[in-house]
Amino acid sequence: MSLGSSGEQQRPDRQHLDVPPTDRRKIVAACVCLAIPVVALLWVPAYAREDPSIGGVPFFFWYQFVWVFVCSALTWTAYKLVQSARGGKR
């Protein structure tokens, strides 16, 4: 089976698929917002320690607890960026 003389697959027409135009910069920013917590929480040596402690709670635990709220904020930001990138219709 041949893909054509240039070897490229043909792209379907976007209007035919009813796909809204997308701002790629905002999608990339949303991906960065979602990647930050993954990197911060998978880099365990950065926070695998006891000091500084807050109220007797070691750094290891309160660092991860703070990320619960930071992750929520970053996920909300990514959601809003994707909405904005797609024209804010959804």
Automatic annotation (TrEMBL):
Name of the protein: DUF3311 domain-containing protein
Keywords: Membrane, Transmembrane, Transmembrane helix
Transmembrane segments: 27-48, 60-82
Stretches the record annotates as Disordered: 1-20
Bias (Basic and acidic residues): 10-20
Source organism (scientific name): Nocardioides plantarum
InterPro entries with a match to the protein in the record: DUF3311
Pfam families: DUF3311
